[in-house]
Design a protein that fits this description.
The protein has about 500 residues and is mainly beta. The strands form seven sheets. Strands 9, 10, 13, 15, 17, 18 and 20 form a seven-stranded mixed sheet that branches. The chain has a six-stranded mixed sheet with strand order 24-23-26-31-28-29, with no helix packed on it. The protein has a five-stranded mixed sheet with strand order 14-22-21-16-19, with no helix packed on it. Strand 1 and strand 2 form a beta hairpin. The longest helix has 16 residues. Bound molecules: CU-O-CU linkage. The site of CU-O-CU linkage has 10 residues, from strand 5 and strand 32. Belongs to the multicopper oxidase family.
Length: about 500
């Protein structure tokens, strides 16, 4: 039978998404990367080739549960060794959920330089629509590689930290304009364009929104058009109406809107929220055009919904009601995870969870140690073990107010249930909602606030939980958890040839 899989090649290139030319990293020459599509229940086979001139890579399928396929989660240092330049690795996993997900490099800051693309898994929807539009990414956008920005350590709140760079611009669907007017900067080509979405009056559209920011939160809206929100991450929800939706890095919302206004042109907006972490953006003019068939080719002159304020957090807790009900069982273990800072030997602050910062060793991924029976894990691996007799884990993720920063936490291998989310200190009196609470794979902990999550321990493997702000993840704001370790060697066994050869090739590359 022919190979029906996907081929992704990781490449260095130069592109100008907003008309400002820069070095980027892309899949198959395009930004964002090619669309991966499947039907609910399909097996996906994806061949990833590393064509980078230097550096390893690995691709993570954000939101995909990887039930029984932990080895394909794509996390270098946890589930695999990096794919060495010139080498290939084939990922195989089932599309066991449906909705909108995405894939991105999980090697350091490669995602920020352009290595991501959408995954669409077709399945039932909780509202009717006539036409499905293409997936739409929103992002902040930098005019230099994140790897260059990263080493420019700066001060933040009076402390020496790695860069929390201010973005000069943002993109909607991988494109935007950028003014070159007074600069003689040869990289500023002025060729940027607004994205355009064409609709027909009277029709209903489904739009898959994906947030790929390096930092901060963005609100999406369409002037004059109400949004009906039908899914949060890969979880269908009871539809609700909104003027805008806020997305943290890693989150997705599926929305339906009706082209029910006068034939004309309307702005679609991705509005950067400076209320999050106090960061600013140089140019908060991230817009695309919604053009009705029969309208002029000019730019819209519409105004933003007046209800949209500058604020931070997730969509309202009460709005995110899963359509397929699921209650949460009693905790087998409950752990407090306090978010703080930690001063490292490289003389900058790192983020820490319970005073520990995650350090991983790319040559010795956790799964390899388990497979080789060397499972006394180094402390730096920041591993929490979930023994085989456990079914429900509760984590109280708390910012004690010293740092007072918002973080979108993402859990690998699971959708989690949000038992509580609020400001101030979590106390034993805080009410936990176990009855069909919001469920998703990325959720926000507020600055001086808490996020209480629960997840079912039904997926053996080594998994990460981390902040999805790329700078913060690189500043070690992550932990690993090893779930039902005794069942992991059997999983690795079934793929051991690929697994070992990826590591062997990486070692050869690394040592040369
Ligand atoms: Cu979207 Cu661990 O990442």
């Amino acid at each position: 039978t022919p190979d029906t899989g996907y081929w992704l090649s990781v490449q260095n290139t130069t592109l100008a998404p907003d008309g400002y030319e820069r070095q980027m990293l892309v899949f198959n020459g395009s930004y964002p990367g090619p669309r991966i599509e499947a039907n609910w229940g399909d097996m996906l086979v994806i061949h990833v080739t590393n064509e980078l001139t230097d550096n390893g890579t690995a691709v993570h399928w954000h939101g995909i549960r990887q039930q029984g396929s932990n080895q394909y989660d794509g996390v270098p240092g946890v589930t695999q060794c990096p794919i060495a330049p010139g080498e290939k690795m084939t990922y195989k996993f089932r599309a066991a959920q449906y909705g909108t997900a995405w894939y991105h490099s999980h090697w350091s800051l490669q995602l920020s330089d352009g290595l991501y693309g959408p995954i669409i898994i077709h399945g039932p929807a909780t509202a009717n629509y006539d036409v499905e539009l293409g997936p739409l990414f929103m992002t902040d956008w930098y005019h230099q590689s994140a790897f260059i920005l990263w080493v420019q350590s700066g001060m933040y709140g009076g402390f020496p930290v790695r860069q929390n760079a201010v973005a000069p611009n943002g993109l909607l669907n991988g494109t935007n304009t950028f003014p070159c007017d007074e600069s003689n900067d040869p990289a500023c080509l002025g060729t940027g364009k607004r994205s355009e979405t064409v609709v027909q009056k009277g029709k209903k559209y489904r739009l898959r929104l994906l947030a790929s920011q390096t930092d901060s939160w963005m609100k999406f809206s369409i002037d004059g058009h109400k949004l009906t929100v039908i899914a949060a991450d890969l979880v269908p929800i009871v539809p609700y109406q909104a003027d805008s939706v806020i997305l943290a890095s890693g989150q997705r919302y599926d929305i339906v809107f009706e082209a029910d206004q006068d034939i004309g042109n309307y702005w679609m907006r991705a509005i950067y929220q400076t209320a999050c972490n106090g960061l600013s953006i140089d140019r908060n003019d991230i817009k695309g055009i919604l053009r009705y068939e029969g309208a002029s080719q000019s730019d819209p002159t519409t105004t933003q919904w007046s209800s949209i304020t500058n604020s931070c957090g997730d969509e309202p807790y009460a709005s995110l009601v899963p359509y397929v009900k699921k209650d949460v069982g009693k905790a087998d273990s409950q752990k407090n995870l306090n978010i703080g800072w930690f001063y490292e030997t490289d003389l900058v602050y790192h983020w820490a969870i319970n005073t520990k910062a995650l350090e991983i060793d790319w040559q010795r991924p956790t799964d390899l140690l388990i497979y080789r029976n060397e499972s006394v894990f180094p402390t730096d691996y920041n591993i929490y073990e979930i023994p085989a007799d456990k079914t429900w884990t509760y984590w109280v993720i708390q910012d004690l107010g010293l740092v007072n920063a918002y973080h979108p936490f993402h859990l690998h291998g699971h959708d989690f249930h949000i038992l509580a989310q609020g400001f101030g200190l979590y106390t034993p009196l805080t009410k936990l909602n176990r009855e069909n609470p919001p469920r998703r794979d990325t959720a926000t902990m507020a600055g001086f606030g808490y996020l209480v999550i629960a997840f079912e321990n039904d997926n053996p493997g080594s998994w990460l939980m981390h902040c999805h702000i790329a700078w913060h993840a690189s500043q070690s704001l992550a932990l690993q958890f090893v779930e039902h370790q005794s069942e992991i060697p059997a999983l690795v066994d079934s793929v051991s040839a690929d697994f070992e050869s990826t590591c062997a090739k990486w070692e050869t590359y690394y040592k040369s």
